[in-house]
Write a structure and sequence with these properties.
By secondary structure, the protein is α+β, with helices and mostly antiparallel strands. The protein is 21% helix and 26% strand.
Length: 291
């Protein structure tokens, strides 16, 4: 019997590859479908734990190339399809000015609280604390936190908060958080993408597996954006024993700029020496001015 022709062998191998890929994808889909998430005593989904985004969307939510040791990132904007923020023309100009001055103008670099949704995809983890009828987010940076009140309570309109005013409800197993009163003093990322005091964010949190959660947020701001847009990011649970978030502090330097000081920072290992370091910096600045 003759061997199959080259084209026949290629077709058989291609079919086998397609079958194997379909099996793997199907297994992954079934794993998510069959996942039974933990629940609290009142039947609501249990989100408790330490969570973190693993990408670098915090640099630019519209996506960015790899540079300065930071991995590249695709846009996390899923609507509109092009992955770009639908700025009105004047707001686009302001965004470009922010980008040029980002090294010093970024509110996050000056130790402002991150705001929503930026706090969710920072390169530091956050913790969800939950009990029946209660839900809170606690963030690593700047001691920031959010309490999610039930949506039966009205928003505290007219008062601006860095982390906004959050009201939540359940749609099946998805937690929906409506956030208003965010002010205009925070950015969306390090690239200067911003919003006005009219920003309205609707977040959706849904557990996919024991170690992953899907985060989605719809941002609406008629002063800044020509239409609402939606971002989406996978969050990962820290399953290490005794996982916890670390304390982050901000201290003002001799140049008037504020700096983060956390266990992720080398200087935090000698925190008790930090005032001496600031004094040395001040002396160096004074010496430089005299030259």
């Amino acid at each position: 019997m003759n061997n199959p022709s080259l084209s026949t062998r290629f077709a058989l191998r291609a079919a086998a590859l397609v079958f194997a890929l379909a099996f793997v994808l199907g297994a992954g889909t079934r794993a998510q479908h069959d996942y039974q998430p933990p629940r609290l005593s009142d039947g609501t989904l249990d989100f408790r734990g330490i969570w973190q985004a693993r990408g670098t969307a915090y640099v630019n939510i519209e996506g960015h190339p790899a540079e300065n040791g930071v991995a590249a990132s695709k846009s996390i904007i899923v609507d509109p399809p092009g992955g770009k923020i639908p700025y009105v023309p004047e707001a686009r100009k302001q965004r470009d000015e922010n980008f040029r001055a980002r090294a010093t103008a970024d509110p996050g670099a000056n130790c402002y609280q991150a705001g929503v949704p930026r706090a969710v995809f920072l390169p530091t983890p956050f913790q969800i604390v939950q009990s029946p009828g209660n839900f809170a987010f606690i963030y690593t940076d700047n001691h920031a936190y959010r309490l999610v009140e039930p949506d039966s309570l009205p928003h505290d309109d007219g008062i601006d908060f860095f982390m906004g005013d959050s009201r939540g409800h359940w749609e099946g197993d998805t937690l929906v958080v409506d956030v208003t009163d965010l002010g205009d003093q925070t950015w969306l990322d390090q690239a200067g993408n911003f919003h006005s005091d009219l920003l309205h964010v609707v977040e959706r949190y849904r557990r996919l597996t024991a170690g992953t959660m899907l985060y989605e947020a719809r941002l609406e701001d008629p002063k800044t954006y020509g239409r609402p847009f939606t971002i989406r990011q996978t969050l990962y649970r820290d399953t290490a024993p005794n996982a916890r978030i670390a304390e982050d502090e901000c201290l003002e330097g001799p140049d008037g700029l504020w700096r983060h000081l956390s266990p992720f920072d080398e200087k935090a290992l000698k925190r008790h020496d930090y005032p001496a370091e600031l004094a040395a910096e001040a002396q160096a600045l004074a010496a430089a001015k005299q030259q």
